[in-house]
Fold each of these.
Amino acid sequence: MNDTFGSRTPCLDLRHDDFYSVSRGGDCTGPSRPATSHYDYVFTFLNAFHSDFRLVHLAKEPLTGVTNVPLRLGSRYISCPNGEYHQGHRGWLVFGGGAPPNAEIWCN
């Protein structure tokens, strides 16, 4: 996230399964962004630079299972190393496993 957003605050929109950013110190919620579906991820990605996660353009959404949703950054999906269900190959950063707040984010 730091490589993409720099000093801006990373946020997650669970209605659209998409990461976005606001100005540093800004609030991820607002009149058009209900607090129940928008979360601040600044502490999660505080010092993450040059990671093995990659942004990938795909013609269609990758298959990640019936209870998992692949997360995006804009129109690009987030590919992560050693996906649990991909026999050592790259997988996808997903959100799922239940409804918030019990859902999690992990590499599928």
Note: Residues 2-5 form the longest helix (4 residues).
Amino acid sequence: MEYKALDKQVLVVAVEGGIGDWACYIGAVAGKNHEREFMEVAKHGTKLPRQIAELLFPEWERYRWRE
């Protein structure tokens, strides 16, 4: 997993699946501790469209996108 803060209270998280695929999720957080908060976004965030995810995490393009 890898995360990026778009704002103090908005995180995006790239998540690798078990079969070499990936997806990206976005969510609002309290902004107090991103090291802890990113896991909640990975579990409960809103899935981003592939085109946006690839702009944010271009190095993940080598994996297959999770539909």
Note: The mean pLDDT is 96.
Amino acid sequence: MIRITDIQTLGTEYSVTDQNGNIIRTIQVISHTDILDAAFGFYDEKNHGSYTQYLQDSIAVLFGFEESDPYKIYWYATHEEEIVLADIIEYAIKNDYDKVILEHLEELE
């Protein structure tokens, strides 16, 4: 059975507050693996056929795109093992993003 996933439910929402505890902004942080798990996993030609077909099939099992402004999504890719999420969220808020996608890149040899 294929599950259909609302992308708005992926990841974790973080509320950023001022010194008085008032919510300034809420940021949705999603790991790229959350997106892949909701779709069809990592691309594999043997299992998915063409890359175009893989993308079409993945998009077909996700919805909620119309709720997101693509210009307000910050895609943060790094090969560092440790990240400081507070710094990434601060950058996102200062630059008017409302979603962050975190991607861990494998080291190339």
Note: The two ends are 39 Å apart (CA to CA).
